Amino acid sequence: MPNEPSEHRRLTVLAVYGWREFWSMGEGRGAPSFFLSITSFAKAGHDMHVLMPGRPGSHRVEDYHGVTLHRVRTRVDFMRNPGGSRIAHHAGMFFSY
Predict the structure, then answer these.
(1) Range 12-28 burial, b when 16+ CB lie within 10 A, else e
(2) Pairwise CA distance, residues 96 & 45, whole Å
(3) Strands 67-72 and 61-64: what pairing?
């Protein structure tokens, strides 16, 4: 099948996303660049995972358009100021926790 990469070329990718929802402004609203890039890799047969902060009551692991979303509890938001560049700082805090 042309859309399935050979096993030795299949990628497993982990992306870190700063918002608690996959779409920044609600389902189908906001900038689609993150959604489209991640889901296009999944449609091409790659194993895509997104690490994102969770919300009380949300599923910890969810399949969303072929992408595995992993929601984790954190002591701090990944991005307190979405326009700022603190994602790397908070991701580092998460992995050192």
Answers:
(1) eeeebbbbbebebeeee
(2) 31
(3) antiparallel
DSSP string of 3-21, one letter each residue? TSPPGGG--EEEEE--SSS
49-60: per-residue pLDDT in tens?
999 888 778 889
Rounded to the nearest 10 degrees, how much is the dihedral formed by the CA atoms of 91, 78, 35, 7? 20
Q: What is the pLDDT of residues 9-57, one digit of tens each?
A: 889 999 988 777 777 666 766 667 778 888 899 999 999 999 988 877 8
